[in-house]
Specification:
Elements lengths: L17 H39 L9 H7 L4 H25 L5 H27 L4 H25 L5 H26 L4 H4 L14 E5 L4 E5 L7 E2 L11 E2 L6 H5 L5 E6 L3 H4 L10 E3 L4 H8 L7 E8 L4 E2 L3 E2 L2 E2 L3 E2 L4 E2 L1 E3 L8 E3 L5 E3 L5 E3 L9 E3 L9 E9 L16 E9 L2 E9 L24 E2 L4 E2 L9 E2 L12
Parallel strand pairs: 4-5, 20-22
Antiparallel strand pairs: 1-2, 1-23, 3-18, 5-7, 6-17, 7-17, 8-11, 9-10, 12-21, 13-16, 14-15, 18-19, 19-20, 21-22
Helix pairs in contact: 1-3, 1-4, 1-5, 3-4, 4-5, 5-6
């Protein structure tokens, strides 16, 4: 006989309790909807982290303002952001495989791991980007706020869903985590909205405001002009110098020389030539090949260079420093003369001791001051005469070429802690107004310790420089910053803005 005592009958059978079944069903669907909402929020913050990466990545080929320069000094930042963002994506794949496909209840475990291994590191990296970029990049800021919202909502969910299973320490840590996530996200949003991120970053103390440049601003001191050039191109960027705004082309006669029409000038000048100059040309008075002596007839030189025909027309001529020798060549049925004017080699540069600029009359009676050209003295002390060209031939075209850059150590010579852009050393080649640079090394920013090339000559005292007279112009090794300045801290120039 079966001596096992009968089991007591349950007060109620859960399988037949319609109220109990209803509560379980409600909790099931509540959990499903909550998990779906939290998962959707996690996917969104992960996607915005990708957006932050693609928005900021590639600054090494741009670096046109203070924000991009600061990020260049942190080369590990973008690879790290991509790695942690991909870990977040991998956690979503794990949810699909483990929870949905195999039915293993590890949703909360995987989501917790995602927060620690992906969301928080991405938020930290985006905070660093936001610190340097402030209001200039939307994606890092949005990623921070979205991640903090996602963490806050996750803490709320864990508090109400698993509160009864946690010990006191766990409850306190969960509440602190949720509060901190809300505080950080809310604080970042307020600072962004009221445009006071500089309260934290102190960026205004560097005196280098952000400018939305699309190319690197380049200042040419001898011209007093700003130009733009991209970084790391395979070829040079041709320089376009324009005549003074509002000036109309100067009417020239066929016999007018450059020095007679424009004086001692290294500025660009618009001019207009009549037709039939070839008939009037006596066959003498044209010296040079693409680069001409200032006593050459401008209209004849324009035909010889190829910018005009015998039918006349308008063009622009560019003053520049001189050459040691003007070459002879035949172009467009014209043969020029050659002339040796100076000794090649070391030269000295100075401006007249009186200083000032030369005033020239413009059409209509207007007057303006042109840049005072420097005086170039060759090794024998003889003055090297100026020249002019039309900027249309390979050996005379003016250009800028920002070939590359390197990051120097913070302890390197010339680097200042309060000016982080001085850590960037650029490799630059250029040709402008008869000055040439060949793979010259120079630091970003306006140099304070660079010796000026063009200083007032003192009576009986020569000005010593490192310059020499090359085939196509004056070359000054080691003095590149006196020829061009790479400076994005002067947004008032507004030269390279989008």
């Amino acid at each position: 006989a079966d001596l096992t005592p009968p089991r007591p009958k349950a007060a109620w059978d859960q399988r037949n309790d319609t109220i109990g079944v209803g509560k379980e069903a409600d909790r099931y669907w509540h959990d499903r909807w909550t998990a779906g909402l939290l998962l959707a929020l996690a996917v969104i913050d992960n996607a915005i982290c990708y957006a932050a990466f693609f928005t900021v990545n590639g600054v090494d080929s741009r670096m046109h303002n203070i924000v991009e320069m600061q990020l260049v000094l942190l080369p590990w930042l973008m690879p790290a952001l991509m790695v942690f963002t991909c870990l977040g994506t991998a956690s979503f794949a794990a949810l699909v495989i483990i929870v949905e496909c195999h039915g293993i209840p590890r949703f909360h475990t995987i989501m917790n791991v995602r927060i620690y291994l992906s969301a928080l590191p991405c938020a930290l990296i985006c905070s660093i980007i936001f610190y340097y970029s402030e209001q200039t990049k939307w994606a890092p800021f949005t990623a921070i706020v979205t991640i903090m919202l996602s963490i806050f909502m996750w803490c709320l969910h864990m508090r109400f869903r698993w509160w009864h299973t946690m010990n006191t320490c766990g409850k306190i840590l969960l509440d602190i985590s949720g509060f901190l996530a809300f505080l950080v996200g809310f604080s970042f949003a307020i600072l962004f909205i009221i445009n006071r991120v500089d309260f934290i970053t102190k960026s205004n103390e560097m005196s280098c405001p952000y400018a939305a440049n699309v190319e690197m601003p380049v200042n040419v001191p001898i011209l007093g002009k700003w130009f733009c050039a991209p970084w790391k191109r395979k070829e040079e960027t041709l320089l376009v110098r324009k005549p003074e705004p509002g000036s109309s082309p100067k009417q020239l006669l066929c016999s007018d020389t450059f020095v007679g029409a424009f004086g001692a000038s290294i500025d660009p000048h618009a001019f207009e030539c009549p037709s039939g100059c070839l008939v009037q040309y006596p066959g003498l008075g044209l010296t040079g090949c693409g680069i001409y002596s200032t006593d050459s007839q401008v209209c004849i030189a324009a035909i010889h260079s190829g910018v005009l025909t015998d039918a006349g027309g308008t063009a622009t001529v560019f003053g520049r420093l001189g050459l040691p020798r003007f070459e002879r060549c035949s172009r467009y049925a014209l043969t020029s003369e050659e002339r040796q004017v100076a000794n090649a080699g070391a030269v000295m540069l100075s401006v007249p001791s009186s200083g000032g600029s030369s005033a020239f009359q413009l059409p209509g009676g207007a007057r303006r001051l042109f840049v005072t050209p420097p005086t170039v003295l060759d090794s024998s002390g003889a003055r090297v005469p100026q020249a002019f060209h039309f900027n249309n031939l390979p050996h005379s075209q003016e250009y800028l070429w920002l070939k590359d850059w390197d990051v120097s150590s913070s302890s390197a010579s010339g680097v200042r802690a309060d000016r982080p852009w001085t850590r960037i050393e650029a490799t630059v080649s250029a040709r402008v107004a008869g000055m040439e640079l060949h793979d010259e090394k120079m630091r970003l920013g306006r140099p304070e310790d660079q010796l000026a090339l063009f200083t007032a000559a003192q009576s009986g005292q020569a000005q010593s420089t490192q310059c020499r007279l090359g085939e196509y112009g004056v070359i000054c090794p080691g003095s590149g910053a006196a020829v061009v300045n790479l400076d994005f801290c002067q947004p008032a120039a507004q030269t390279c803005l989008a």
